[in-house]
Design a protein that fits this description.
The chain has 269 residues and is α/β, with parallel strands linked by helices. The protein has a domain of 168 residues: P-loop containing nucleotide triphosphate hydrolases (Rossmann fold, 3-Layer(aba) Sandwich), CATH 3.40.50. It has six helices and nine strands; from the N terminus they run E-H-E-H-E-H-H-E-E-H-E-E-E-E-H. Strand 6 and strand 7 form a beta hairpin. Helix 3 crosses helix 4. The chain is globular and about 70 Å long.
């Protein structure tokens, strides 16, 4: 009879990564997600623009979201990636579900008072992430897209500073951060430019055009990962997901190719 200690292993857990990407509008979040292999879009918002991509019907309520995930779990299909765009548009669907659960006596999440409605919403957020994990268990990569917003953080040691994070409530953000294996902040790189001469100079920002994905928390952008990836990587306009996928594969030791065995030389007759 085997023991628990006999089952101890140091092998990496080879499951598709759970990815969350946040950024400002039109920075290329949806394009990044849809460059993943055999991607299917769940368009919770009208953010895919003119992209010609495979997409699910737009959910009208939170039940539609769960039903779409359940169908992907239970039905045969060839899709390898689900791109959920965007999670900040799922949040009001969850809030409406909380109100509906109360028999529609409440019209808004704040009508519950003292943050109780937001606590009730936790249950639905957990249901969502559980459903996405079931998909992941079946071999699908899940990419969750979010818009960014900037808020002031009051720190008792360093004072007040600005921080960019996914545009959802702090309670939901905590669940998203806990769920994601990769949480990235996608930005267009900017540099400071001084204009003018002498005492009449002004400082402004100018973009370099480079798309930079932050994968490590630098204080100003909420980010992080479980694969010891670089702090930042450049993401091209086309096939951007492949850059991240190759780095994750390298971190898991999956990028090593077996060396070809040299054929023995024939002896001269």
């Amino acid at each position: 009879m085997g023991t628990i200690l006999s089952q101890v292993t140091s092998d990496p857990i080879l499951k598709p990564p759970r990815i969350a990407i946040h950024g400002n509008p039109k920075v290329g979040k949806t394009t990044f997600g849809m460059s993943a292999p055999k991607a299917l879009l769940m368009p919770v918002e009208d953010g895919e623009g003119a992209l010609s991509v495979a997409r699910l019907p737009r959910p009208e309520c939170f039940t539609d979201v769960l039903n779409s995930i359940a169908e992907l779990v239970n039905e045969d299909h060839d899709f390898k990636t689900l791109v959920l765009d965007s999670i900040d548009h799922i949040e009001p669907l969850i809030w409406q579900q909380v109100c509906d659960d109360d028999g529609k006596a409440k019209k808004h999440i704040e009508d519950f008072g003292y943050g109780r409605g937001l606590k009730f919403a936790d249950t639905h957020w957990i249901r969502l992430f559980h459903g996405l994990d079931v998909l992941r268990g079946q071999g699908m990569t899940v990419i969750v897209i979010a818009h960014s917003h900037t808020k002031n953080i009051e720190d008792p040691i360093i004072g007040t500073y600005s921080r960019t994070a996914p545009k959802i409530h702090d309670r939901a953000n905590a669940l998203l951060v806990e769920w994601a294996d990769v949480l990235g902040g996608l930005v267009i790189e900017k540099v400071a430019i001084d204009r003018g001469e002498g005492n009449r100079t002004t400082r402004t920002a100018q973009t370099t055009g480079a798309r930079v994905l932050h994968l490590e928390d630098n204080g100003s952008i909420l980010a992080g990962n479980r694969y010891s990836l670089p702090a930042t990587i450049q993401i091209p306009k086309e096939d951007g997901y492949n850059v991240l996928r190759n780095l994750v594969a390298k971190a898991l030791g999956l990028d090593t190719k077996p060396k070809a065995t040299a054929k023995p030389k024939k002896e001269a007759a």
